[in-house]
Specification:
The protein has 373 residues and is α/β, with parallel strands linked by helices. The chain is built from twelve helices and 13 strands. The N and C termini lie far apart (87 Å).
Length: 373
């Protein structure tokens, strides 16, 4: 009788746990066929063949460190946390270093990195920093933060440097641009602006970041998508960043602004600026404004940033670096950073990042040519 009562008690307790949601984590378990780092798994020691970066294996194990410590997740059994990263930042402090610092601080929170430092090498649209980085030898802890602005800078300056002469570790994120106007602007939507540019061309001053940078690329590609000759019709006024663009708009020096969506968020929320369009594929969560696509312009264009390793980094250290960043991608810390910055989780590790760069770099070079630069 006692055994029967005990069994009934166990059943009752199980139903109570289900009702309370205590075992709902089981519903989120990911099988080996769909395994990815940081996802819940069911059986410790089971292996997901080839599901890791560059065809490596993932193992279901208790995460040894970080915010998921002790939880059963798909992870790398042989992953080694990094002792330090010495970043080369190809610009002054700002967008690039925001990303490299974000990566580094997130890695530290997750127990995947001990220390990091940064050296800033601005100039030539990122080509100066790339050249400096590619001269580094016998320094496995070195890393370069790169992005679409560097791809544009190389094309703009007709540099002979090639990003792919370094080792692609991971594309970490993508940030999308917003096109904004002052709240009292006559433009209420993107089509009104585009059609006015078609009629009035360079009489409309549009402010954005550096010449050939992502902001310049976004507005130029939008006009091209709309069938408007870019060289003859785009009056692009260069500023050092989003804050200067905002000053230019509110002072009336320019009529339209282009920059990363987060740069305008506070002024949009305050009602001083209005969003005409966002260059993302889907509407950004918590951000006003329709996408270009929703307004009839079949265009998605975002400012990606990624990590490169030295060309002489050993195969073993390179693969471990790829695994570390792939592991970071699956953590709550990284997810929070993406949300805080309105970044898209557009991750590509190792060979996938190399494939992306191989196709992306010629596209950016083509955009620079279209801009007449």
């Amino acid at each position: 009788m006692l055994k029967k009562i005990t069994r009934v008690g166990v059943v009752v307790t199980t139903f109570a746990l289900i009702a309370s949601g205590a075992v709902t984590a089981q519903a989120a378990v990911t099988g080996a066929a769909n395994a990815k780092t940081g996802a819940d798994c069911a059986r410790s020691g089971s292996v997901a063949k080839g599901k890791g970066v560059n065809g490596s294996d993932l193992t279901c194990l208790s995460v040894p460190t970080g915010t998921m410590k002790g939880q059963l997740k798909w992870w790398y059994a042989d992953l080694k946390p990094l002792k330090n990263i010495d970043w080369v930042v190809p610009a002054n402090p700002g967008g690039y270093s925001l990303t490299s610092n974000g990566i580094s601080d997130s890695l530290k929170t997750e127990g995947l990195l001990s220390e990091y430092s940064s050296v800033f090498k601005p100039g030539a649209g990122g080509a100066t920093g790339l050249g400096f980085f590619q001269e580094i030898k016998n320094k496995p802890e070195a890393a370069l933060i790169t992005g679409i602005a560097m791809a544009g800078g190389i094309a703009l300056n007709k540099s002979t440097l090639n990003i792919l002469d370094s080792k692609p570790v991971a594309k970490m994120m993508r940030e999308y641009d917003a096109i904004v106007v002052p709240a009292n602007s006559k433009y209420k939507n993107l089509k009104q602006l585009v059609e006015d540019i078609r009629k009035r061309g360079k009489s409309i001053a549009i402010s954005g970041g550096n010449s050939g940078g992502v902001d310049h690329q976004v507005i130029g590609t939008l006009l091209k998508t709309a069938g408007i000759p870019v060289k003859e019709n785009l009056n692009y006024v260069v500023h050092s960043g989003g804050s200067e663009v905002i000053v230019s708009l509110l002072s009336g020096a320019t009529q339209v602004g282009v920059s990363g969506s987060t740069e305008f968020k506070a002024m949009v929320d305050s009602g001083k600026l209005r969003v005409l369009g966002v260059s993302s594929k889907k509407k950004l969560a918590g951000y006003p404004g329709l996408t270009f696509i929703a307004q009839g312009y079949n265009m998605v264009y975002g400012n990606w940033r990624g990590v490169m390793a030295p060309a002489d980094l050993s195969a073993a250290d390179y693969l471990n670096f790829c695994k570390v960043l792939d592991a970071l991608k699956g953590t709550p810390t990284w997810a929070k950073l993406l949300t805080a910055n309105n970044w898209d989780n557009d991750f590509a590790g190792g060979d996938a990042f190399k494939t992306f760069l191989t196709s992306e770099l010629p596209v950016v070079a083509g955009v620079i040519k279209d801009l007449g630069l």
